[in-house]
Amino acid sequence: MTRQILVTSALPYANGPIHLGHLVEYIQTDIFVRFQRLRGHQVAYLCADDTHGTAIMIRAQKEGRSPEQLIAETAVAHQRDFAAFGVSFDHYGSTNSPANYEVCTGIWRDLRAANLVVERSVERLYDPVQKTFLADRFVVGECPRCTTKDQYGDSCEACGATYTATELKNPRSVHSGAPPELRLSQQLFVKLTPLQTFLTEWTQRSGALQTEIANYLAGHFLDKPLQDWDVSRPAPYFGFAIPDAKDQFWYVWFDAPIGYIASTQEWCARTGQSLDHWWKNPQCEIVHFLGKDITYFHTLFWPALLHVGGYQLPKRVQIHGFLRVGGEKMSKSKGTFVTAARYLEHLDPEWLRYYYASKLSSKIDDLDFQPDEFVGKVNSDLVGRVVNLASRAARFVESSGLSARYPDDGGLFATAASLRETLATAYEACDFREATRLVMTLADAANEYVESKAPWTLKKDPARSAELQDVCTVVLNLFHQIIVYLQPVLPQLAAKAGALLGSPCDRWELVTTPLVGTRIAKFEHLMTRVEVAKVQAMFVPESATGTTPLPAPTTPPIAAAVLSSSDTLSSDTLSSDTLSREPLAAEISIDDFQKIDLRIAKVIAAEAVPDAKKLLRLTLSLGSGPTRNVFAGIKGAYEPDQLVGRLVVMVANLAPRKMKFGMSEGMVIAAGTDGHVFLLSPDVGAEPGHRLH
Asked: Is residue 649 within 8 Å of residue 693, measured between CB atoms?
């Protein structure tokens, strides 16, 4: 049955750029949305910029422009970054829109009619420098429970406690750094106690919340009368003026979530649909994705507004944890606060989509970005186990195409097809870690098949061309299934794979029907490997115009071994007469040099040649295709077991040479004089098959 699903991500604040922490949520949401579309469901993915508040107003003043100019510029940057990471919104709006004011006004009328709005004077923190009252998020200080420093005025990231901003110890304004003053302010509040029975029922019995969230609300808020919710701010303030309260503006946390509805309204107006069909239709599943820091607002205040306004409540609120880098909170001073734009300067966005997917479960655990793990997962899983399948088979059938009927594969295709419901369950639960794990088991099985059938060997015998076509048909069908399963995670790779195979990867049921008799396009690289140096470059802090560059991290995010000083030699260790004993060769042209194809190779086997004094027989892998048999005169310098697993440099296009002990299919590069031999080794991050330039 086709489902109708409305999906939102939390609205990013217009006061700053999108960064890697934000992208956890938007990538998680987009994977869920793409999965639902892949299954054929009707999905609308809505979002908007959160544009109101004191922070926007003060920043615009400092920069000598209007808040409207600031948020317009930010909207362009945010949408550009989201698009680069493949986040597929159906509509992206702004909370500073006529549609949002209209919806806010309607819900406010309903709150007034229900006698849920009260006014009273309260003491609030005031910034004497900026001359404005401070929202909780713009006051920092020591947590009143655990004394952790630099915590916001509403909750502590260290111990999870919630409190009011006036309870902070040693508070200071985020805007000016000044200690805030307590001043009386006239405020409007929404009474929540009349709605407490409804909120208790919804949070504890609807099934919309993760168990740990339901328990958290029950133990921290719903076990006592709910406090009234402060929903106004006095002038000066950038936001919507409350129509029936002089010099009062709706607090940003009132109009921000209403932006979900307003963005839907704008989308409906553009596409000729009805807002009520999405927000007042019991058959429509409303799903919110958000971070754990805004749980309180989205699971108590927001449901209260929806209930009073006559809108449908979310069927599901999927909450995730924070992103840390190397086990620590992101930090500008350490170079671990990375914007989306900064990432895109160095790395492929699909790499991050896969990395996050491989770590995201249905739980609320924090994610830890480990650069060495990032490199390993992309290079091993995506390039080595998935893309490698296509590169090892597609070239062999570019002229013949796939077999006219699907060959016997020992049950591999049927096994992969049988996993579709298990994988669907994992995707539905947002357990993307389990989904990617299962897909990698299919990739492993497919690679074992490739190794056992060795199409590169079959290619050498024209009499076995039909067998070669059958083997490649199996491999490319297994690859197609894997790509369909990964399409929600890797939409760009799926599009490239579809073009290669002449068949789209955009419907879930495609995994049940083999591709036969189709033409295969000329193979082009589908994905490159991650270079460690580029990951390192991403973590080098940027210098902003007119500011002093931030210091580089004292401990680089990449594993310390990458930059170990033991990997360098001082000039004192070099012999001063090396050149005199072995002078430079005659000059060559660049054309001469370019004829030599130097490649990184991995030693997968090594053995002594019994009747040779200097030779070792090496079996080298270039990452794909057949292995190479190479004889190397390094017997006196290296034991065979020291070499297995090592990366070396080889001349890959040297004509095979028949020797007494067999055929040598290349040459490994070494240095040294007077019988001292030293194999050349590539830097960390190089992979078999990489060409030296």
From this structure: no
**Beta-carbon count within 10 A of 322 CB:** 17
pLDDT at 359 over 50: yes
360 with 505, same domain?
A: yes
- 167 and 48 in one domain? no
Closest listed residue to residue 368, CA positions, set 413, 312, 325, 426: 325
Domain end, chosen from 470, 486, 512, is at: 512
Q: DSSP string of 528-551?
A: PPPPHHHHHHHTSPPPPTTSPPPP
Least confident of 130-139, 270-279, 409-418: 130-139
Q: Express each pLDDT in 539-548 by its tens digit.
A: 886 554 333 3
Arithmetic mean of pLDDT over the chain: 89
- Residue 146 and residue 225 share a domain: yes
Task: Provide the phi-psi class of 392: left if phi over 0, else alpha when psi is between -120 and 50, else beta.
Answer: alpha
In residues, how long is the chain? 693
581/339 Cα distance (integer angstroms)? 53
In a domain, 117, yes or no: yes
3-state secondary structure 461-485: CHHHHHHHHHHHHHHHHHHHHHHHH
Q: Is the peptide bond before 236 cis (omega within 30 degrees of 0)?
A: yes
**pLDDT attached to residue 514:** 98
Taking 3-state DSSP, the helix, strand and coil percentages for the chain, each rounded to the nearest 5, stand at 40, 20, 40
- Does residue 564 surpass a pLDDT of 50? no
Element holding 429 (H helix, E strand)? none
Q: What is the pLDDT of residues 3-45, one digit of tens each?
A: 999 999 999 999 999 999 999 999 999 999 999 999 999 999 9
Type of residue at 315:
K
Range of the domain at 156: 105-192+212-248
Give the end of a domain, one of 512, 543, 561.
512
Number of domains the chain is built from: 4
Query: CATH number for the domain including 630?
Result: 2.40.50.140
Comparing C-alpha atoms, which of 139, 117, 119, 133 is closest to residue 184?
133
Give DSSP secondary structure letters for 478-510: HHHHHHHHHTTT-HHHHHHHHHHHTS----GGG
Domain check: are 283 and 321 in the same one?
A: yes
d(CA 188, CA 333): 40
- 519 assigned to some structural domain: no
Looking at the fold, whether 380 and 243 belong to one and the same domain comes out as no
Please list, in sequence order, all residues whose beta carbon lies within 8 angstroms of the beta carbon of residue 643, skipping any fewer than 6 positions away. 603, 606, 616, 618
Q: What confidence score (pLDDT) does residue 148 get?
A: 92
Q: What is the pLDDT of residues 304-342, one digit of tens each?
A: 999 999 999 999 999 999 999 988 888 887 888 999 999
pTM, two decimal places: 0.76
Q: Do 399 and 508 share a structural domain?
A: yes
Residue matched to tokens 């990013």: 12
- We report the CATH number of the domain holding residue 370 as 1.10.730.10
